[in-house]
Amino acid sequence: MTVLNERVTTDAVLAVDDLSVTFGTDDGLVRAVRNVSYSLRPREVLGIVGESGSGKSVSSMAVMGLLPNTAKITGSIKFRDRELVGQSYKQMQGLRNNSIAMIFQDPMTSLNPVFTIGWQLAEAYRAHHDVSKKVAWAKAVEALELVGIPEPVRRAKQYPHEFSGGMRQRVVIAMAIINDPDVIIADEPTTALDVTVQAQILETLLRIRDETDAAIVMITHDLGVVAGMVDRVQVMYAGTVVESGPVDELFENPRMPYTVGLLGSLPNPAMLGQRLTPIVGSPPSLINLPTGCSFSPRCPLVVDECKQVEPVLAATDTAGHYGRCHRWQDVASMKEPEKVFEHDEIGLVENPAALTAIDPTLAVVEDLGVDKRSDEEGHSS
After folding, report:
1. Starting at the edge strand that comes first in sequence, how are the strands of the sheet with 71-79 ordered?
2. Which parts of the chain are coiled coil (predicted)?
3. Helices 133-146, 165-177: crossing angle, 10 deg rounding
4. Facing residues of 185 across strands?
5. Strands 71-79, 14-25: pairing kind
């Protein structure tokens, strides 16, 4: 059983307790989510990070009630003390996009290409409010203006293909907030966007939070997004939470080797010209999880206990900071824990352009292309 004191939160707008999700397949039981717990207060931003396949999106789809019937869900999901696990599809419709809204990864697949942006926003509003088309259209224009889209009256009459990627993402955010939800789940909202547009999208989400008092769950694999936006962060691996805590504390003092590895793999300007430090290996199969700690096959600090007994998510040496590791105290005692992931092959120079930034005297060959004209002349002679 997961040891997590933050479960007991009386003012939580959303409380997830010991959530597990499994899928039956021909190859065996897929344990997609295992014993995930968190609580979310109004205006709070929770970040959930991890590699692809770690269970981030599946846990959020469980909250939204969007998983297929083949999924077996156990545990508890409460929205304002209302239990959502076991609710029918029709019962969830009243909550979905009204009390709890979701921003999906790909805005182009979230929007219908044959209807105008304004029509789609207005329909999302009318689905939960008994109002006229004129009132709903006005609400759609208001939502577009709220997310920072210029000329919202004109833009509402356009189609999704007439919007850029960043503008479409703003439209999806507008659709999520048009019914003033209490909780917004943002699933990789900045994927495939350039860094400038990413910053604008994140600023928009925080502004929406301030104006509507909504709580936000930010799901991402980008630690840079998490560092600048969230209040608390949960790190997921192999379907479960391996570390959680206040974002500043977790980034400065990680207590789980996997978190150390994630932070160590971030690009560092001080290491210009050197390769990133990777975590060797791949995440385990969710059908055949290893005995003991799921990270043990890749962990440089692994001992026999790690291979035999799975650690619980328990309090570490700082208030509100939890780790799922037998050796978190050893990690805490290290001055530079990220060095446990260093390998002999790391540090090889593969980018000559980066070298010139370090040593401008080095020459770089930029183009080795053949001059076709001179080559043809040589053959003709």
Report:
1. 28-40, 14-25, 71-79, 82-83
2. none
3. 120
4. 102, 217
5. antiparallel
Tokens linked to 202: 């994140």
The candidate with the shortest Cα–Cα distance to 303, out of 274, 328, 268, is 328
- What three-state secondary structure class fits 336? coil
pTM, entire model = 0.83
The two three-digit tokens of residue 312, written as one number: 């619980």
Pairing mode, if any, of strands 322-323 and 82-83? unpaired
Q: Residue 186 to residues 61, 106, 116, 302: CA-CA distances in angstroms?
A: 11, 11, 23, 34
Q: Please state, as a whole number, how many other Cβ atoms lie within 10 Å of the Cβ of residue 231.
A: 16
The first and second tokens of residue 239, run together, are 């379907």
- Where helices occur in the chain by DSSP H, the ranges are 56-64, 89-95, 107-110, 117-126, 133-146, 152-155, 165-177, 195-212, 223-227, 247-252, 257-264, 304-308, 328-333, 352-358, 372-380
pLDDT of 273 higher than 80: no
Distance CA 187, CA 220 (A): 7
Name which residue leads in pLDDT, 277 or 65: 65
The tokens 């006229």 sit on which residue? 132
Please write the tens of the pLDDT for every residue from 133-184. 999 999 999 999 988 899 999 999 999 999 988 899 889 999 999 999 999 9
Cα separation, 220 vs 223, in Å, equals 8
* Per-residue model confidence as pLDDT tens digits over 320-370: 999 999 999 999 999 888 888 875 444 444 544 444 454 555 454 555 555
- In the prediction, which pLDDT does 371 show? 53
- Rounded Cα gap, residues 259 and 252, in angstroms: 11
| 234: nearest Cα among 2, 11, 75 | 2
Exposed, middle or buried, 248 (CB in 10 Å: 0-12/13-18/19+)? exposed
Q: What is the DSSP letter of 96?
A: B
